[in-house]
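Q: My labmate handed me this sequence with no annotations at all. I'd like to see what the chain might look like in three dimensions before we decide whether it's worth expressing. Could you predict it?
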Amino acid sequence: MHLSDLHFGDRDRRHLEPHDPQLLEGLTAACRRLHRHVRVPRATPLHFVVTGDVTAGAGETAFDAALAFLTGRVQLGHAAARVGLGLEFGPGGDLSIVPGDRDHGRIAVASPAGLDPTLRLPSPWKTTLVSSDRRLTVVLFGINTDSGRLDRGPAGRSRNCGEIAAAEVAWLELELARTPAEALRAIVMHHDLEPMPAVAQTAATPAADRPPWPLAQRDKARLAALAGQYRVDVVLTGHRHWPTSAPRAIPGPGAVLHELRAPATLRQASTTAKAVGWSGLPGFLVHHVHRAAGGRRTWKTHLFLWHRGAFRLWRQAFEELEM
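A: Here is what I predict for the chain of 323 residues:
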């Protein structure tokens, strides 16, 4: 299950509950019914990935609220019942998180000595998922697409354009080289690979409605080269608040890296998203990886959106890839 851009502690709200309690209740309920929605046996193992911007501004109380919801059952605002996903965050758990640009934010600016809120969301990391019949392995590689800007100190924190530290790229190459050839590989990161959209804006445009800055071109090229050399199958992203499934050309004859980007899960999308044709509805992706008839490996992605008071399956097989 692929969540993104939760934005706990949004600055435009009065409390640490930046979302309609219905959204929190709805996500809790959707997770309980997930097997039925995507028509897989209840014994099918689940893993949850959050592709960054867990918080709106990297405040400690915002991290506390976000992790309380993701890992437990909490009472938030006027919710009718205790809500939460009850996941286990950390090595061996069923929840993996990469930080987004908002998860560094103000603390990094205020403390150049190195008080880095990503200590709450450590990266890089590698998680290996194995199917219940042991016939399929998926390896997730989580990287911090803001680590390069942290290297440069507070002066590099002025925009939300992503940059990856050289040490993190080196780690990724080493771990890709160590991964068994038969495993499926997916990079998990916050910033997407799409160019910045041409959306009109002025000095009066609210910051929340300005186009999100993309990953630096140099780092896109680095990732493309590694994906081509080590046969990375998929990259899971967020940041832009609307979903997409897009093939990205990478080095190698006919080689393609498939980007699967989740919508913002617990907030309405910005004016920028609506300007490029996205409805702005909160949602998430579900990736179902399995062996089809004949032993073919299939990666099927379903899109869920908020509609009439619940997260509903909006597009069955939003994307279906054979690998």
